Amino acid sequence: MTTLLDLLDDVREDLLQESWDKRLIEDCRSKDFRYINILVHIFMDEEKVPIQRLNTLKRTPKHTWQFGITVPRFVAAYLPKLNELLWDSKMTDQQIFEWLGRSNLDTLKSSSDYRRNIKDFRLFNRTKAVDKKAKIESAMGIKVYQAGLRSNWRAVKK
Questions:
Q1: Do residues 107 and 126 share a domain?
Q2: What is the DSSP letter of 52?
């Protein structure tokens, strides 16, 4: 048998979830590009919620690597279905909130474009190595050229 306190706790949980979803969507659509860790701290201060309670909510950052990115990037990488609804559908914000209330959508553990990120990171490192090699070869070419100049009095000329 459920008590009145259990019902109140469930209602409080639903209200917190709805408040978090509204804040997440507002910040995702804003032009500020706020970081997710700042959004979490603002939400915790306004709602007087400890971090343990925040972790029980859906669609919140769960891992340390998710805190250092902007809100739009967080939604795009870790909530791809919500991202699709926000940018590709004709749904209003109210319809999206209703859909989120019915859905069981939660934060992914790894980003949806993880493989592409790894591929881009490796390509960046390879390009950096090629660029470093080209700079060294260019510097060596300049030294060889300067060593062979007629104005170089240290060089032995035939």
A1: no
A2: H
What does the alpha-carbon distance between residue 135 and residue 139 come to, in Å, rounded to a whole number? 6
CB atoms within 10 A of CB 88: 8
- What pLDDT score does 2 carry? 67
Find out whether 62 and 106 touch, Cβ atoms under 8 Å.
no
Same domain, 117 and 152: yes
Q: Which residue in the block uniquely carries the two structure tokens 């080209």?
A: 134
Specify the DSSP element, H or E, that contains 46: helix 36-47
6 pLDDT more than 90: no
- Domain of residue 155 covers 113-158
State pTM to two decimals: 0.67
Mean pLDDT for the stretch of residues 56-75: 89
Residue 89 shares a structural domain with residue 65 = yes
